[in-house]
Amino acid sequence: MAIFQETNEEPPKRRTGLLVAVIVLLLLLILFLSLQITEIEVTGNQKYTDEQIEEMLFPDKVSRNTAICYLLDHIQEHEQIPFVEDYKLVFQGLGKVEVIVYEKSVVGYVSYMSSYMYFDKDGIIVESSGQALSGIPRITGLKFGHIVLYQALPVESQEIFSEILNLTQVLSIYGIEVDRIQFNEYGEANLYMGDIEVVLGGNESLNGKIAELGDMLPMLEGRSGTLYLDDYDETSANAMYAFKPR
């Protein structure tokens, strides 16, 4: 008569297979945790250098781990970076990632209560900072009330923002950077670049005025004074413009 004896012990082959599986998983885990991002490419950035973006997003060895970086990128919100709307990480291999930066649209800033308030083309305050960024002009002469972040700059006429956008776009086309743009009560603009003041007058023939300014900038280098372009005449082939040294 056969006698069966119950046992809780696993067969040797099954135990061996389980051990091998655990070892393989551990090796894979060690492999993934040892993978490091060694090459970082940054695109779409203008307000920050590549090195600044890299330092903000990958400050230590843990943040440069490929597996951890990929996981966190998919389960948690992105780092908040001033003047950056968002960014995207594109993994191009186990050791390389591309950071695509989407910057906030900023056309100028105003000074308010010891802070610099940056606004977009619609006059919306998109960022507040304690320092002025290069390449973005300070706008003066505007009359406004209480400023609230992410709301429109409360000026008398919203049309001024389209004029600011148009002027900054034309300046950008000709590669001209200005420190400050001053508007008077009639909406006429003066530009300030170091020790040079440029009187533009009204916004008519703006493209021609800025083109003339671009041609004259080499002659104005190192000088101090006021250039008058408010009498610009697009029909004149050999126009002369006054420059008053100071």
Q: Separation of termini?
A: 122 Å
What is the count of DSSP helices, taking H or I runs of 4+ residues? 5
Count of DSSP strands: 12
Helix content: 25-40%
The largest sheet has its strands arranged as 7-8-9-10-11-12
Largest sheet geometry: 6 strands, mixed
Rg, Cα atoms, Å: 30 Å
Structural class: alpha/beta
Low-pLDDT windows of residues: none
Overall mean confidence score, pLDDT:
86
The helix/strand order is: HEHHEEEEEEHEEEHEE
- Overall geometry comes to elongated
β content, as a range?
15-25%
Topology, pairings included?
Elements: H1 12-34, E1 39-43, H2 50-57, H3 66-75, E2 84-91, E3 96-103, E4 108-112, E5 115-119, E6 125-129, E7 138-140, H4 159-173, E8 180-183, E9 189-193, E10 196-201, H5 206-220, E11 225-228, E12 243-245
Parallel strand pairs: 1-3, 7-8, 10-11
Antiparallel strand pairs: 2-3, 4-5, 5-6, 8-9, 9-10, 11-12
Describe it for me?
- The structure is a single chain.
- The protein is of the alpha/beta class and 246 residues long.
- The chain has five helices and twelve strands.
- The protein has helices at 12-34, 50-57, 66-75, 159-173, 206-220; strands at 39-43, 84-91, 96-103, 108-112, 115-119, 125-129, 138-140, 180-183, 189-193, 196-201, 225-228, 243-245.
- The strands form three sheets. The protein has a six-stranded mixed β-sheet, covered by helices on one side. A three-stranded mixed β-sheet has the order 1-3-2, with helices on one face.
- The radius of gyration is 30 Å and the shape is elongated.
- It starts with 11 loop residues before the first helix and ends with a strand.
